[in-house]
UniProtKB/TrEMBL annotation:
<dbReference type="InterPro" id="IPR016162">
    <property type="entry name" value="Ald_DH_N"/>
</dbReference>
<dbReference type="GO" id="GO:0004029">
    <property type="term" value="F:aldehyde dehydrogenase (NAD+) activity"/>
</dbReference>
<dbReference type="InterPro" id="IPR016160">
    <property type="entry name" value="Ald_DH_CS_CYS"/>
</dbReference>
<dbReference type="InterPro" id="IPR015590">
    <property type="entry name" value="Aldehyde_DH_dom"/>
</dbReference>
<feature type="domain" description="Aldehyde dehydrogenase">
    <location>
        <begin position="19"/>
        <end position="484"/>
    </location>
</feature>
<dbReference type="InterPro" id="IPR016163">
    <property type="entry name" value="Ald_DH_C"/>
</dbReference>
<dbReference type="InterPro" id="IPR016161">
    <property type="entry name" value="Ald_DH/histidinol_DH"/>
</dbReference>
<protein>
    <recommendedName>
        <fullName>aldehyde dehydrogenase (NAD(+))</fullName>
        <ecNumber>1.2.1.3</ecNumber>
    </recommendedName>
</protein>
<dbReference type="Pfam" id="PF00171">
    <property type="entry name" value="Aldedh"/>
</dbReference>
<comment type="similarity">
    <text>Belongs to the aldehyde dehydrogenase family.</text>
</comment>
<keyword id="KW-0560">Oxidoreductase</keyword>
Length: 491
C-alpha cells in the first residue's frame, strides 16, 4: 500500500465501549517521521480520563472474570479475523507513523495475529487447567490451586513496535480474564488506535478494553498510581521502568517490566561469513536499530575480523534508506527529531571518546528532505568505558570489536548492566550450546535471525526485565494463584 494522501485517523480515547474526547479537550500532534509532516492531532489524556477508564475496567471485571476461557477465546479469534481484514491499513499506519518499511510493518501485523491466535488457544485450555489438584500428604485434606485473573491491568507501551508490544500484553491479559487500560506511546498512536478499533468491533462487553492516549506524565503516571489497577505491564526505557516500579510500590501492585538492552552478536572463527553478515546487518539495522534487542556490540574472532568488517561495510553501503513506502527501501527514518538528535549525540560523543568511525554517521544521500534519517553506522576501536559501548543507542549504530578466546567473547557480552538477548554465529554446535548457557541473556539465537515465536518467552536478565512475556509466562503475568484447602467430609 502507498502512503495515503487523504485518510482519516482515529484520534479519541476508547473508554467504556465508546470513542470519546479527552476530559480537557487537549490534543497531541502526530508526525510522519519520513517527511516531518503533521499527520493528526490525537487526544492528550489526563488523570480524569484515566479515572474514567479504570472505573470502567473495574466495573467490567466481575462479569468478565466469570466468562469461560472458551468464551474469551472466541473474542480473541474474532480480533484475529478483524486484524487480518485490516492488515493493509494497519501496516500502512505502522509505516506512516513509525517510519518502518512496509515489509517490516507487515511483519508486525502478522506478529499481532500470531499472538492473539496463540493466546486464544491458551484461553481455551484454561477451562481445564484453571483448577489443579495438588497431592498432599494427608487423607483429610483436599488442596486445589486455582489460577485467577488479577484484576484491572494497565498496559503501557513504547513506539518502536507499536501494536506488537501491545499484543504481547493485551492478548494474554484478556485471555486470563483481566480487563485492561492500554496507554500507547504518544509518538505512535495511529496504528494503536486502529488496532483498538479492530478490538472494539468484536463486541466485547463495554469496559473490558479501554485505550487512553497521551503522555507518560499525564496518562502513564496516574495509571500506574491508580489504586484500582492491580497490575502494570510496562515496556519502555529502563529509567521510566524504574519510576514505574517505584510508583507502583505505593499501592503494592504487581509490575512486569520489559526495558532496555545492550546486546551482542558473537562471530566465531568457524562462522559461515555470509550468514554472519546477514545476522549482523539485521541485528543492527532492522527497524533502523530502534530495537531493545539490537545486537549493537559485534564481537568477532580476531582472525576473521578484517574480512568480516570489509564484507559488512560493503553490505551496509548497499542498504537502501528512504521513504518507507518506496519499493526496495530497507531502512526508514528514526521515529522523531528527538531520537535523531539523541543518536547523533551518541555518534559525536563516540568520536570524541576515540572510537573509529568506519562508515555512516551522517545523513544518507537522497532521502526526503525533512525526514529524520541517519545512515547505517559502524564504529571500531570503541573504548569499553564509552557510552557508545555501554549505553543503549537505539539507532542504526554498531560497535565492532575483536576477541581472542571464547571466554573473552562471553565476558565482553556479559559485561553490561543489561541482559536481554544475544546471537552466536559458529559452525561448532557444542560451542553454540556452551556459549548460550554462559550468556546472561533472556534469549539466545544460535546461527539464526531474531525470530520470536509467541509460544516461547520474551524478556531478559539484569536491568532488561522483570518477569517474562509470551508463552505461558505471559499469561501467568496476569494471574493470581489461589490455594483452596478443604477438609474432607467424613462419610
Ligand atoms: P519510554 O520509557 O520513554 O516510554 C514508554 C512508555 O511509557 C510510553 O508510552 C510513555 O508515554 C510511557 N511513560 C513515560 N513516562 C512514564 C511514567 N512516568 N509513568 C508511566 N508511563 C510513562 O520508552 P520509549 O522511548 O517509548 O521506548 C524505547 C525504549 O523501550 C527503549 O529503551 C527500548 O529498549 C524499550 N523497549 C523494550 C522492549 C523489551 O521488550 N524489553 C521492547 C521495546 C522497547
Amino acid at each position: 500500500m502507498n502512503a495515503p494522501n487523504n485518510t482519516r485517523f482515529l484520534a479519541q480515547h476508547y473508554i467504556d465501549g465508546r470513542w470519546v474526547d479527552g476530559a480537557l479537550g487537549r490534543t497531541i500532534a502526530v508526525i510522519n517521521p519520513a517527511t516531518g509532516a503533521h499527520l493528526a492531532d490525537v487526544a492528550a489524556g489526563t488523570a480524569d480520563d484515566v479515572e474514567l477508564a479504570v472505573t470502567s475496567a473495574a466495573r467490567a471485571f466481575p462479569a468478565w472474570r466469570q466468562t469461560t476461557g472458551t468464551e474469551r477465546a472466541r473474542y480473541l479469534r474474532a480480533i484475529v479475523t478483524e486484524v487480518e481484514a485490516r492488515r493493509e491499513r494497519l501496516a500502512m499506519l505502522q509505516s506512516l507513523n513509525n517510519g518502518k518499511p512496509q515489509e517490516e510493518a507487515h511483519m508486525d501485523v502478522d506478529d499481532v495475529i500470531a499472538t492473539f491466535r496463540y493466546y486464544a488457544q491458551l484461553a481455551e485450555r484454561l477451562d481445564d487447567a484453571t483448577t489443579e489438584e495438588v497431592s498432599v500428604p494427608s487423607a483429610e485434606h483436599r488442596v486445589r490451586i486455582r489460577r485467577e485473573p488479577c484484576g484491572v491491568a494497565a498496559l503501557i507501551v513504547p513506539w518502536n513496535f507499536p501494536m506488537v508490544t501491545t499484543a504481547w500484553k493485551l492478548a494474554p491479559a484478556l485471555a486470563a480474564g483481566c480487563t485492561v487500560v492500554l496507554k500507547p506511546s504518544e509518538i505512535t498512536p495511529l496504528p494503536e488506535l486502529e488496532l483498538a478499533s479492530a478490538i472494539a468491533s468484536v463486541g466485547m462487553p463495554a469496559g473490558v478494553f479501554n485505550a487512553v492516549t497521551g503522555t507518560g506524565a499525564d496518562v502513564g503516571a496516574p495509571l500506574v498510581a491508580h489504586p484500582g489497577v492491580a497490575k502494570v505491564s510496562f515496556t519502555g526505557s529502563t529509567g521510566v521502568g524504574q519510576t514505574v516500579m517505584k510508583t507502583a510500590s505505593d499501592t503494592l501492585k504487581g509490575v512486569s517490566l520489559e526495558l532496555g538492552g545492550k546486546s551482542s552478536i558473537m562471530v566465531f572463527d568457524d562462522a559461515d561469513l555470509d550468514l554472519a553478515v546477514e545476522l549482523v546487518e539485521a541485528g543492527g539495522f532492522f527497524n533502523s536499530g530502534q530495537m531493545c534487542s539490537a545486537t549493537s556490540r559485534v564481537l568477532v574472532a580476531r582472525e576473521l575480523a578484517p574480512t568480516l568488517l570489509a564484507r559488512l561495510v560493503k553490505r551496509v553501503g548497499q542498504i537502501v534508506v528512504g521513504d518507507p513506502f518506496a519499493s526496495g527501501v530497507q531502512m526508514g527514518p528514526l521515529v522523531n527529531r528527538a531520537q535523531l538528535e539523541r543518536v547523533r549525540g551518541h555518534i559525536e560523543q563516540g568520536i570524541a571518546d576515540g572510537a573509529r568511525l568506519i562508515t555512516g554517521g551522517g545523513r544518507p544521500a537522497g532521502v526526503p528532505e525533512q525526514g529524520f534519517f541517519i545512515a547505517p553506522t559502524i564504529f571500531a576501536n570503541v573504548p569499553s568505558t564509552s557510552a557508545l559501548w555501554r549505553d543503549e543507542i537505539f539507532g542504526p549504530v554498531l560497535c565492532f570489536r575483536e576477541f581472542d578466546t571464547e571466554q573473552e567473547a562471553v565476558e565482553l557480552a556479559n559485561d553490561s548492566e543489561y541482559g536481554l538477548v544475544a546471537t552466536v554465529v559458529t559452525a561448532d554446535e557444542a560451542r553454540g550450546e556452551r556459549v548460550a548457557r554462559a550468556l546472561e541473556a533472556g534469549v539466545v539465537w544460535v546461527n539464526a535471525p531474531q525470530l520470536i515465536y509467541p509460544q516461547t518467552s520474551w524478556g531478559g536478565y539484569k536491568r532488561s526485565s522483570i518477569g517474562r512475556e509470551l508463552g505461558p509466562f505471559g499469561l501467568a503475568a496476569f494471574q493470581e494463584i489461589k490455594q483452596v484447602l478443604t477438609r474432607r467430609q467424613a462419610n
